[in-house]
TrEMBL record:
It comes from Flavilitoribacter nigricans (strain ATCC 23147 / DSM 23189 / NBRC 102662 / NCIMB 1420 / SS-2) (Lewinella nigricans). This is Uncharacterized protein. Residues 208-221 have a biased composition (Basic residues). Residues 1-29, 79-124, 190-225, 458-480 are annotated as: Disordered. Residues 1-11, 83-98 have a biased composition (Basic and acidic residues).
């Protein structure tokens, strides 16, 4: 009879239980939040992955010493109901892991140090990325041509640069026959050139994949069992979420199918591809087969025998790596390439998509094979480069390889057909292809999050250009209806703004009448007119800046709410016209702060700066510092604020405590590494004083989406005043008053709930 531990290990959803290792073991065990967390499946052509008020937070099992919550996934249900995961036992196990109920087979709790230091990030570029909970994470850097993986809290060596650019999108579509390449720059400008050298042949790619697989196995073999188990847990947790994103594209029982393939001595010719039939595997079949076969081979010769425990851990690591790679699948119809007839490109089509009820383009040559090999070669080049860094762990190498395969798909094999700078083939298919591409982008975002690589923010319109992106994926591309609704709203907003500006006492009003007339000529049902609308916005903004000294802003209307209520008490504020809310929030904070007492009028607002659009957190802080108000905190990321506040707390109060002076010095070093200067520290100290009870009121500036995941964070800022109720109240209530320069009724219940919790 097999042991309990052996039986558990053979479960398709096995995730090894290990203890903490103070940052050496990557990943995290997910901590349950106030939101209900669900694992969902996306029904094929029914569930559209995109942002909406319907929020579903996926639970992730990511192992490490502390707790971490992975990103929120915003989804809208289009046609039919969302089918939730029915793996009851798996979900029960997830609950236990998330609440810290770890038990070894014998019943004894696995030791966990839940009081490890909070995470730190050692590069200024990461100041505004998501830091949630207490995940202990590291970051890619390149030092003298060698990639290195620096643990959280460790100082970045001089000369080391952020290596996440290796995962950036740089679109390059190769035409049939490999004769021509189309590239798209960051502005969406397309250029074409002849291809000098094509990608490796299948045979060459297979050899490189086999060599890389052997190298990864060798590195894994030199790791401790605990390190291997930690890596396996990370791969398993990400794989499980990948399966949830892929949904019905993977079919049923994907973990069991992978286990069956893993147990075979070697992976046969098409066995990897056929785990899920008639779908495009983003990690190419030939390369994946050779890589994982090599991971299963012994070194032979005079190599010392592998200890049984290590051999078992290596096997688990390989299985979960295979599961991750296989879960990166997409509908074939979403993976399109140029097709040629008579030397002319005349369409876009997947080479096998005609088998799925899409008519074949007869007599044409497809660029599928050429682009597919280019995608695989780029991913292999990255893996080979990462293998140069001796500190790069096996699971990180596998995650990076899969991520590069996914971004390669977005770059070369899934250009958004609705984009205005991409040739307009098969318009009726554009919306379906957009949905399928959004699924692939979500996979890339998930893996990028596990590697602490920047992810995109914001939104794109349905027809926005295809362009290079400084992130593994591009921002969410809205569907045509959403884009059209946004377009109509912008038309209405600009006409309303012109009406406010059209006052008898204002000069140069002729341009207002001209632009109003031009706007009325726009077709509100044709988003191709958006370029003209952008021009008109620019003209009105320029008029506004030229006549700033004459303009008197109206005040926002407010709804009656109690300051102690969930949505706080809104106070009348000067109204914004464009996207100048950052400077206005700084002004409003100075108005709210009794220690400053700034007059609330246009002259005071205009004196603070040029009213630039969409200014950053640092810009807002600089305005406050210039007015002697460094003590006013600026919160762009609520989770990051909590982490940094804790560092300041340790640095300021730990010297004479059992934690000791060493912890205080470490915290100081972490603050320096996170580019926290005196102005940053002053705002964090204000938050600490309030939290400790030293003060009962403070004023701050907060991004209205600071409580959300980085990919959902917007640019709107408001000023608020938080006040704790009188001593003796049980429990003490925190009232919130705020000034919002944006006209209209806006609900900030979730933001204020998160803010009160943090305080």
């Amino acid at each position: 009879m097999k042991s309990t531990k052996e039986a558990e290990r053979k479960s398709p959803n096995y995730v090894p239980a290990t203890g903490a290792d103070k940052g050496r073991e990557a990943g995290a065990v997910s901590q349950m939040t106030d939101h209900r967390q669900e694992i969902i499946h996306i029904q094929q052509q029914q569930e559209i992955i995109q942002h909406s008020p319907r929020v579903v937070q996926l639970n992730i099992l990511q192992q490490a010493a502390n707790a971490h919550t992975l990103p929120l996934l915003y989804r809208r249900q289009q046609q039919e109901s969302v089918r939730t995961n029915d793996e009851v036992k798996v979900e029960q196990k997830a609950e236990k892991l998330a609440t810290g109920d770890f038990r070894q087979p014998g019943g004894s709790p696995v030791s966990r140090d839940l009081n490890l230091p909070s995470p730190t990030y050692t590069t200024p570029q990461l100041r505004h990325t998501t830091i949630q909970g207490g995940v202990l994470q590291a970051k890619w850097y390149m030092l003298n041509g060698t990639p290195i993986w620096i643990n959280a809290g460790d100082m970045v060596p001089p000369g080391a640069v952020d290596f996440s650019t290796a995962f950036y999108q740089n679109p390059a579509l190769i035409h049939p026959g490999g004769a021509q390449e189309e590239r798209y720059d960051a502005a969406g400008v397309k250029s074409s050139k002849a291809v000098v050298k094509g990608p490796d042949t299948d045979q060459d790619l297979a050899k490189r994949s086999k060599k890389a697989g052997k190298s990864v196995r060798k590195r894994a073999k030199s790791s401790s069992v605990r390190e291997l188990e930690a890596g396996t847990r990370l791969l398993a947790s990400v794989s499980k979420k990948m399966e949830a994103i892929a949904g019905d594209t993977l079919g049923k029982n994907h973990p069991a199918k992978v286990r069956k393939l893993h147990k075979a001595k070697t992976i046969g010719q098409d066995k990897y591809r056929r785990i899920t039939k008639s779908k495009d595997e983003l990690v190419r079949n030939a390369g994946a087969r050779e890589f994982f076969n090599a991971m299963n081979e012994s070194e032979g010769g005079n190599a010392p025998p592998t200890p049984p425990a290590t051999r078992l851990a290596l096997s688990d690591l390989r299985e979960q790596g295979l599961r991750l790679a296989s879960s990166a699948r997409a509908e074939t119809r979403g993976i399109v390439h140029p097709s040629t007839i008579g030397g002319q490109v005349d369409g876009q089509q997947h080479v096998t998509s005609w088998k799925n009820n899409w008519p074949e383009l007869q007599g044409r040559t497809s660029a599928h094979s050429y682009n597919d090999r280019a995608r695989a070669e780029n991913a292999m080049e990255l893996l080979e480069q990462l293998l140069q860094g001796s500190a790069n762990r096996p699971e990180i190498l596998i995650l990076s390889w899969v991520l590069r395969s996914i971004t390669g798909t977005l770059e070369q094999m899934a250009a958004p057909l609705s984009a205005k700078n991409v040739t307009n083939w098969n318009p009726a298919f554009h919306e379906q292809q957009r949905r399928q591409r959004e699924t692939i982008k979500l996979m890339a975002e998930l893996i990028a999050e596990s590697l602490e690589i920047r992810r995109p923010t914001g939104h794109q319109g349905f027809t926005d250009p295809f362009r290079a992106q400084t992130a593994p994926t591009s921002p969410r591309r809205m569907d045509k209806n959403d884009t059209l609704a946004d377009y109509k709203h912008r038309i209405h907003t600009l006409i309303t703004t012109i009406g406010i500006f059209d006052q008898p006492t204002y000069p140069n009003r002729g341009i207002l009448a001209t632009v109003r007339s031009n706007i009325q000529q726009l077709n509100p049902n044709d988003i191709d007119d958006e370029a003209n609308l952008n021009t008109y916005y620019g003209q009105i903004y320029q008029w506004f800046m030229n006549n700033l000294s004459h303009i008197q802003r109206p005040r926002t209307t407010v709804a009656p709410h109690l300051a102690a209520g969930a949505n706080g008490q809104r106070l009348p504020a000067l109204r914004q016209f464009f996207a100048e809310c950052g400077q206005m929030a700084a002004h409003n904070a100075l108005v709210l702060d009794p220690a400053i007492g700034r007059p609330d009028n246009d002259a005071s607002l205009n004196a603070l700066g040029p009213l630039a659009n969409n200014i950053s957190e640092d810009d807002i802080r600089a305005i406050l510092v210039s007015q002697g108000a460094a003590h006013i905190p600026v919160i762009g990321n609520l989770h990051q604020m909590q982490t940094l506040r804790q560092m300041v707390d340790i640095a300021d109060h730990s010297v004479n405590t059992p934690i000791g002076a060493t912890a205080a010095l470490d915290a100081e070093a972490d603050l320096v590494a996170n580019n926290q200067g005196p102005a940053d520290r002053a705002g964090l100290t204000t938050l600490n004083d309030f939290r400790r009870g030293a003060t009962n009121s403070f004023v701050g500036v907060v991004n209205t989406t600071s409580h959300r995941d980085a990919s959902e964070r917007g640019f709107h800022w408001i000023a608020f005043r938080a006040t704790r109720s009188a001593q003796g109240a049980a429990p003490p209530a925190i009232t919130i008053e705020y000034l919002d320069s944006l006209e209209g009724n806006h609900t900030y219940t979730q933001l204020f709930t998160s803010l009160r919790t943090a305080l």
